Fold Lipoprotein.
Amino acid sequence: MKRIFSVIILSMLLGACSKSVDQRADEYVDVSFTLCGAKVKAFSQGDDGKIRVVCDNESYFLVKNEETLAYMHELNGAYCHGKGFRTFNERSSYYTFTCMDDKNFNIPK
């Protein structure tokens, strides 16, 4: 029984990792493009696992994962009225961001 369970878990893990780096990068760029409202100048994921996006209009994002990018859409609508972010940083217990209209926020996680 344990072997069957192990095989099922292993196949689920391999399936979750099946997206290529390029496919994941495309998803992040698509999401970040809507949040900065400009072309994406640079996209990278560092050794620390954090995702860094620099937009053509010099706005930038620093986030830990794709779920944070999705949550950024909610924050953009609620706090920035859909105008996008000038900066966005994910800290251990809160998000720090500046909207395009220069309003600053620190939102607890």
Residues 21-36 form the longest helix (16 residues). Residues 1-16 have pLDDT under 50 and may be disordered. The longest strand covers residues 40-45. Strands lie at 40-45, 51-55, 60-63, 85-90, 94-99, 104-108.
